[in-house]
Amino acid sequence: MSAFTETALLKKLAELNSSQQSIQTLSLWLIHHRKHHAGIIKTWLREIENVPESKKLIFMYLANDVIQNSKKKGPEYGKEFSNILPKVFSHIGETCTSDKLFGNLGRILNIWEERGVYEPKMIADFRAKLNKQNHSNEGNDGKRKNEENNKTKVKRSRTSSDSDDKNTALLFELNGDAEQSPYLPLGDPPEPEELIKALVKIENSASSDAIVRERIANLPPEISEISCLNKLEDKDAAKALANQVNEAVELLNDYNSRLAAEMEERTKLASMLRDFQAEQKELLVQAEKRLEEYKKKLQKILAVQKEIRDHLSNLPDLTQLPDVTGGLAPLPSAGDLFNIH
């Protein structure tokens, strides 16, 4: 994970786009550097106030991703964002006109309310500030107080309908339904040792226990067939069957519990692998950029090296110069000069 600097943050915000990968990658980086949360949010606020209207929604998607993903690591981002979000929603409500923007921000607020990200009273305040100019928080009608703009807005709504659909799809991809979200937020990437430990643990999971599976496969059929009860001839046979059934129930309950635990472990492992892969992709991009940069530096240094060699080859060899002293006596030393009377 690259080191945090404000310059690096500004560059990443400038390169941010509406793709899921772009938002996830930057969100992961911000959460990793959460100890700088105050400076990060201050820079984010300054930039969202200056970016074009079309990019403000992307900044809000990023904020949403960071707020929701960072909850398990600590409350820093959620609390810090709650201090500046009223100003952000006021800014958007006062300066923006896009139905698409207001509609999707309204959906973000709905998701925050459903998931309890912020208190209902706070979300109501966000909505009030966002709808200051009578924008619809769902973006269905997009009407404003000034009726003379209605025709223009209808035209703009038609021409941007495809874009609206794409952005709505992106919003659900990023946030989804509170219970059936197709997108699981990225968390902090695991350490390699932690990932290896989880992989080894899966190797010894319940589904890999061939001995228990064979015991289950070899259970007598009469313990699961009610019709076999009619074949019981005496009390001893019934007791024997009851013991077999009890043992089978205990065996299956234990194995089912192990399988359920394995499912949870595999879900956790899948998230770890996804987070680890996302980090490795980012590190790969950074390594490729760094390699390209150092290749260029190497070419420059090699060029300087060649110039130095060419220059040295053109310089005269002082050892080959003729003796210009003509056998003259050496000059007196400083001591000899002071001893002259």
UniProtKB/TrEMBL annotation:
The keyword Coiled coil applies. InterPro entries: CID_dom, ENTH_VHS, RPRD1A/B_C. Residues 238-304 form a coiled coil. SMART domains: RPR. Residues 138-151 have a biased composition (Basic and acidic residues). Gene3D superfamilies: 1.25.40.90, 6.10.250.2560. GO terms for biological process: mRNA 3'-end processing. This is CID domain-containing protein. Residues 131-167 are annotated as: Disordered. Keywords: Coiled coil. Residues 1-134 form the CID domain. The keyword Coiled coil applies. One of its GO terms (molecular function) is RNA polymerase II complex binding.
